[in-house]
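Below is the data:
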Amino acid sequence: MLQHIFLESRVLLFGVWIVVQLVLIGIWSARRTRAANRAVWIGLVALPTLMLVSTVVHTEREKLMALCRTLARHVQHGEAGPIEARLADDFAAAGLDRAAFIERLEPALERFGLDNIRLSQFDITFDGSDRATVELSASCNVRTADRFLSQVLSRWRVVFTPVHGEWRIATIEAVPTPFSPIRNLRDWIR
């Protein structure tokens, strides 16, 4: 939780800083001592310092979220090559191995024109140091030869494994949700 506040969420960091700063100012106004005065000034300097550290340091959660957004951009542009480069050697999804998945991914990206992809509601869990599961929601516009669907909602579960210091996709699956037309990944990459 502290890692999330201090390194990942600048809004929460700012909120915590405001509360702490108000407490310090309250103590200073009640006591007016040299130590209270110093604490107020240290609190003022702490915010820019913590914001700088939060900007420079990237946690594994942030790296996984950024990777998911990068992969979504490749999907949006119909680029299967960069996606293939991020698949683990033992990748398996929708009953397909790595080679069969890529073979079906390229025509699917051509058949379905996806744009305005937005990712949200990330839920990231780490299973030791060798596995991370990311559940996320996505919305996008889908264009086919004869149809246009606006703001199609979906939920995805992506399992990542580290390979030589980089996160690679071990598996991906669609998570059925009430308002999503996507029930199974295999239906979309026939």
Notes: The first strand starts at residue 92 and ends at 93.
